[in-house]
Design goal:
- This protein is α/β, with parallel strands linked by helices.
- The protein has one domain: Lumazine/riboflavin synthase (Rossmann fold).
- The protein has five helices and four strands, in the order βαβαβαβαα.
- It has a four-stranded parallel beta sheet, sandwiched between helices.
- Helix 1 links the parallel strand 1 and strand 2.
- Helix 1 packs across helix 5.
- The radius of gyration is 16 Å and the shape is globular.
- It starts with 20 loop residues before the first strand and ends with a helix.
- The structure holds riboflavin.
- Riboflavin binds next to strand 3 and helix 3.
- The site of riboflavin has 16 residues, from strand 3 and helix 3.
Length: 168
């Protein structure tokens, strides 16, 4: 039994019905990505955001996630963006460079635009780890779809962003 992971999400999100949430996802490792996007949509809907207020765009790979996220913020007036990707370690240094650059880029965009950017990037050492963390599972382990948590995080941070905007 592991103690890792987020505390249970709040059970209600008052005001969620007024939010606009963006999802930007990479298309590399698409089986994993599709499951993550599905999980995120499930929790965002459960939190009370209408489906027509969730905007989805895709980019080729995780390297392009920062610019795709920046574009979503500039063009769609969203309250938060969830950026989804999956980088699986191979035999060259690409993994390290893509993860490092993309994650720094995403953090920078959130801080500079003041629109919360939720980190939905799996950076894993094997396909099995990716399938487990996308809730698809493999080799007898069902796993957990981490995007369920990311969806709730996006709604929580979007509400905080709205509150902050009212104060300033
Ligand atoms: N993009 C991902 O989202 N996940 C990966 O695991 C991934 N691995 C890559 C490995 C190599 C060797 C290369 C060349 C690209 C990889 N990309 C991956 C794509 C990358 O994010 C980007 O879309 C392309 O490099 C085009 O800019």
């Amino acid at each position: 039994m592991s103690i890792k992971g987020p505390a249970p999400a709040p059970t209600s999100f008052p005001g969620a019905e007024k939010l606009r949430i963006g999802i930007v996802h990479a298309r590399w490792n698409i089986e994993v990505i599709e499951s993550l996007v599905k999980g995120a949509l499930e929790s965002i809907a459960k939190a009370g955001v209408p489906s027509e207020c969730v905007l989805i765009e895709s980019v080729p790979g995780t390297w392009e996630l920062p610019i795709g996220t920046q574009h979503m913020i500039a063009s769609q007036a969203v309250d938060a963006v969830l950026s989804i990707g999956c980088v699986i370690k191979g035999s060259t240094m690409h993994f390290e460079y893509i993860c490092d650059a993309a994650l720094h880029g995403l953090m920078r965009i959130g801080l500079e635009t003041k629109v919360p950017v939720i980190l939905g990037v799996l950076t894993v050492l094997s396909e099995d780890q990716a399938l487990e963390r996308a809730g698809i599972g493999r080799q007898g382990k069902a796993g957990h779809n981490h995007a369920l948590d990311w969806g709730f995080a996006a709604v929580e941070m979007a509400l905080k962003n709205r509150k902050q905007q009212k104060l300033t």
